[in-house]
Write a sequence for this structure.
């Protein structure tokens, strides 16, 4: 780390987003202790992990996985909240890199492309970025797998899903995704769908169905957090 970044940190200290301690130059978002104590799932690429199982009997996804478990009110969850609602892209890239390191130990690393779950155009304009795309960029930095954003699009600008039940959420999202206009040919490819959180799996199921309708491809799923 250069003397300049050390000096900048001295003048403008950056704090760990979980415990609030001052960070050293080699850590940008979390301190070493908090990174170590993250409630990681350890799912790796096991076939019967809870994220993979979410899709059983619904859509033929090869494998699913997540970096850490959703714990309500947890400071780790705040990282995702900061990314989604407060424009903290640094947190998104950081989480993406952590997910990337995790995936690079598994068969996920053989995927051909990373596809972030798209945001609707209006929401994208309002927010200025797609949090899943930022996470994907972090994953890509570590794994070298390219990010593809011109494959899927989100067509309906539905209400926020957080207050809906499972069935309503499914109805809400099932028609929301389409192939983008002039999508790249992904026939025979291994596609890794990336999202920030998976809860019911309805969003990722809908994206997978759109892909399977057009292409013979394999779909993998990875998210930062899982409920
Ligand atoms: Zn900390």
């Amino acid at each position: 780390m250069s003397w300049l970044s050390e000096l900048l940190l001295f003048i403008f200290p950056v704090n760990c987003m979980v415990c609030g301690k001052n960070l050293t130059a080699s850590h940008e978002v979390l301190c070493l202790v908090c990174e170590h104590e993250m409630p990681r799932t350890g799912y790796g690429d096991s076939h019967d992990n809870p994220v993979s199982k979410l899709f059983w009997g619904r859509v033929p996804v090869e494998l699913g996985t997540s970096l850490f478990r959703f714990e309500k009110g947890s400071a780790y969850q705040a990282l995702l909240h900061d990314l989604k609602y407060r424009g903290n892209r640094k947190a998104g890239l950081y989480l993406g890199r952590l997910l990337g390191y995790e995936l690079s130990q598994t068969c996920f690393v053989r995927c051909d492309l990373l596809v972030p779950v798209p945001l609707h155009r209006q929401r994208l304009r309002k927010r200025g970025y797609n949090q899943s795309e930022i996470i994907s960029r972090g994953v890509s930095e570590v794994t070298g797998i390219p990010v593809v954003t011109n494959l899927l699009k989100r067509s309906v600008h539905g209400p926020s899903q957080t207050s809906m039940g499972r069935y309503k959420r499914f109805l809400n999202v099932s028609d929301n995704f389409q192939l983008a206009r002039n999508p790249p040919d992904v026939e025979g490819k291994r596609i890794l769908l990336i999202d920030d959180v998976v809860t019911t799996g309805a969003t990722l199921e809908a994206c997978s169905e759109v892909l399977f309708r057009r292409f013979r491809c394999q779909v993998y799923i990875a998210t930062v957090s899982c409920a």
Summary: The first strand starts at residue 63 and ends at 69. Residues 16, 18-19, 21, 30-31, 33-34 surround zinc ion (CB under 6 Å). Residues 87 and 128 are 8 Å apart (CA to CA).
